[in-house]
Amino acid sequence: MTDDSFGAILAARGSGPMAGEIAIAYPGERLSWAELDARSAARAGRLASLGVVADDLVAIALANGIEHHVSSFAAWRAGATPCILPTKLPGHELAQIVELAEPRVLIRDGEVPDGVTRLAPGDDGDGSTAIAPGLAAAHWKAVTSGGSTGRPKLIVDHVPARFDARLQGLVDLVRMPRDGVILNPGPLYHNAPFLFTGLALLAGSRVVGMHRFDAEEALRLIERERVQWVCMVPTMMQRIWNLPEAVRDRYDLSSLQCVVHMAAACPPWLKRAWIDWLGPERIFEVYAGTEGAALFITGEEWLQKPGSVGKAPPELVSIVGEDGAPCAPGEVGEIFFGGDAGTRFHYIGADAKLDGAGRLSLGDLGYIDADGYLFLSDRRTDMIIRGGANIYAAEVEAALSEHPAIADAVVVGLPCDDLGQRVHAIVQGEEGLPLDAVDAFVQTRLARYKCPESYEIVGEALRSDAGKVRRSSLRDERLQWLQEGKPFRQSR
Hints:
The protein is α/β, with parallel strands linked by helices. The chain has 14 helices and 25 strands. The strands form five sheets. It has an eight-stranded mixed β-sheet with strand order 2-1-10-9-11-12-13-14, sandwiched between helices. Strand 13 and strand 14 (294-298) form a beta hairpin. Helix 1 crosses helix 2 (33-49), helix 2 packs across helix 3 and helix 7 (215-225) packs across helix 8 (234-241). The chain is globular, with a radius of gyration of 23 Å. 44% of the residues are buried.
């Protein structure tokens, strides 16, 4: 029987005819397949010497770069599940996540919460601890997410750490090349960049990474490295499109076979611009959650069904109204995923929203047309999608409410030309509340991308006597004010 564990796949690549070729390339650093094999094996031994055993969580809080990939493969080779964390979490949020995850080891440059074993990147020990071949965790990744209760949660994927038919099928589904070249412009602590870079390496493709996204640099890398495949969020696509046409046309993108976009709604005008630029056969959209449910649509299909996110088989997708009854074609309701959606993952720190039939909701609203294509109407009003990152309003509100001068807070997403949405905080407090101090306070509790970009001070209560918040109406009211040009923001 062939060993399809991640360690065995990498070992074969590291000792085969391609061993000396580049596996991972970042600005200023490159790693061959043989080096990736050797370094990840050594670090796996170091993890084992620190007590890591099969199915432990190994938390990784590293910036984009070679060390992140080495650490991920080391965790897999040790039989553990990588738990990916943002790099610059403030101590309060890091402590919450560590308390939730209880990782055996945290790989990080900086300090770690009390009671957690820290492994510094680059610390691969003396090689004295051997790792048994063929180890494979029952769950191949754990991803952090904001929580609707105000506390973070973990999403643990039930796919085992084996490059079996399921993961190989996903490689083919998203049109990723084998033994090719992909570009990763996104942060590795997000699910899609972590997922796709791992799959690419398992499929034998070179990963060209970016420390931080830059629109023109992405085009330059595609040309220089002859990149065949890239996954972007719409914000990245818009920043590239905003480059002067002469700059976009300066680069040879003929090697690029597929641009996958996901994680946030893509404005129809932007998608059509990319289709006109690169051709519909090179544009591929995925609608998915970290929890695993997914649809997809090709550029050719999208031209026939503009705005759709894909064909929705009735056994996979159901639209349910507020009364719990199925919606008719064209009727907006909550989107539920069927099949085995509720068994493909589990949460740590939250409960999945399942209906009586075991179908999973990610909280999105939409409708299915008469031809069976799904169209999204809105995201749930308590989630803000900022540059492809999910931000739960309750998590930001919980941080704001800790400030002694704030009686209450409601957070909504407002339009942003660059990032899709921005985080706007409506805080109940005294006039003249020092917003700079409030913002500094929040930054000690939340990752920077979750912090409000604008604030508004109100004197009236934001919730009913029953504690209910009128989030939709508050958001709609401010959208109307924006259309009318009414000033209402007090920005820091």
